[in-house]
Write a structure and sequence with these properties.
about 140 residues; mainly alpha; elongated
Length: about 140
Amino acid sequence: MRKVILTIGICVAGLMGVSAQQTAPVAAPSTAKSAAAPKEQQVEKLMTKMKTACTLTPEQIGKVKPIIAEFVSARMENKQKLGSDKDKLQAANQASMKTMNAKLSAVLNADQQAKWTAAEKEMKAEMQKKAAADKK
């Protein structure tokens, strides 16, 4: 009797293990949605930094968000076009940054511009620190 119960228990445990390994196939996400998600995340990340660094008014937020979205789009296009040439990519991204800052200067007051410049320098220092750590 013990052998029968033990055998049944082993069979049940084996079946449970096999069924746990089987998973339903997952449909691949659409490329439009997956490409838009990182862009939106980057826009929101920059907007959050800008809101906290510059204490934007609701009116300014409405004006700044399209500028940030345009900047993020330009950077993504630059990466697609020039991804293999780091020097050209860096130059194109710097040009995009200058364009963004010129547009932001029309929206931000002098105090906010100074705060944004300081925040940009801080973000640049963080990126350089991260890049140095990745090289090690």
